[in-house]
Every structure is written in structure tokens, then in C-alpha cells.
Amino acid sequence: MPSGQRPDRKWPGPARLWHYPSMKKFALILVIAALAYGYVQETGISVPWSPTPNGSNDTLQDAFANQRSDVQVKGEGTVTRILADDLEGSRHQRFIVRLDSGQTLLISHNIDLAPRVANLSVGDSIEFFGEYEWNDKGGVLHWTHKTLRGNHEPGWLVYEGIRYD
């Protein structure tokens, strides 16, 4: 068959595709999905990010041992010290946690983008998910909040059953 010609079967062609109900449903679903995506991006609603790495305290230990940064990690630790807020630039609530391994981790939680963790005390347990940055003291965890532009995986803290993001 010469190029540019259709087969002998009746081919609906672009204009006639709209006569099929399934094509109309597909187009409607596509438009709704695009509008929902735009709304989420514009409002900064926190939605589960996919794929989420299976971060854990083991991932944290590996990142520390191998001096790796920009690693998404999830874990739990015990608060050992409450530090003064960092007020330069974006404000951050800061505290140090100790993991079961003995490693310490500074958590720097942006309180301009997420609520302050209320009534946090030394000895309390806290769960976290965020981005790990290596340093020789155990590392820093930041991005423990939602992202406004969808340009980073959102993080969170969970304390006494309340999620802070």
C-alpha cells in the first residue's frame, strides 16, 4: 500500500473519533486530571509522593557512614536536646535526636512552612521523614514540611500522634 493511504477498513479518522462514547470519557478524565494536578501544584496541598524510598534508621546510618547527602530518610529517635530557633532567613525549630544506633541527628524544621512541634521535650520520641545532609556530628535533617511548588519530596514529623507538615 502506498504511504499516506489508509487501509481498506473503515477507519474513523480524527473527526469521527468523537462519536465514540469511550473517547469522550477519556478526554473528560484527562481534563479533570490536568485540572487537579494544576490545583495541587498551585495550592501546595501535601499529597503522597511516589515513589517513596523505604527510608529507615538503617538508611540514615548508611548515609552517615558513607558521607552522603540529599538522601530521603525516614526514622524515629529520642529528643536529647532542644536548641534555640534559627531565625536567620526562614525560621527553623531545631532539636537533636538520638537514634537506636547511638547516632545523633539535628532536625531543622521550617516553622515558616509548617507548624511548630508543640510541647516537645527532652526524652520524647519523634518520627521523621525528610532530607538528610551529612556532617561529622551525625547529620542534619531538613525538608520536614510540605512543598509549595512540587519541586521536592514533602517531609513530615509525627509527635504524640500529630503529624506536622
The low-confidence parts are: 45-55
Strand content: 25-35%
CATH class of the largest domain reads: Mainly Beta
* Topology, number of strands: 7
The main sheet comes to: 5 strands, mixed, barrel
CATH superfamily of the largest domain: Nucleic acid-binding proteins
> Helix/strand/pairing class, anyone?
alpha+beta
Total number of helices: 3
Q: Give the helices and strands as they follow along the chain.
A: HHHEEEEEEE
Mean pLDDT: 81
Say what oligomer this is: single chain
Describe this structure in words.
It is a single chain. This protein is of the alpha+beta class and 165 residues long. The chain has 2 domains: 13-43; 57-164, Nucleic acid-binding proteins (OB fold (Dihydrolipoamide Acetyltransferase, E2P)), CATH 2.40.50. It has 3 helices and 7 strands, in the order H-H-H-E-E-E-E-E-E-E. A 5-stranded mixed barrel has the order 1-2-3-5-4. A hairpin with a 2-residue loop joins strand 6 (156-159) and strand 7 (162-164). The longest helix has 23 residues, at 21-43. The radius of gyration is 24 Å and the shape is elongated. Residues 45-55 have low confidence and may be disordered.
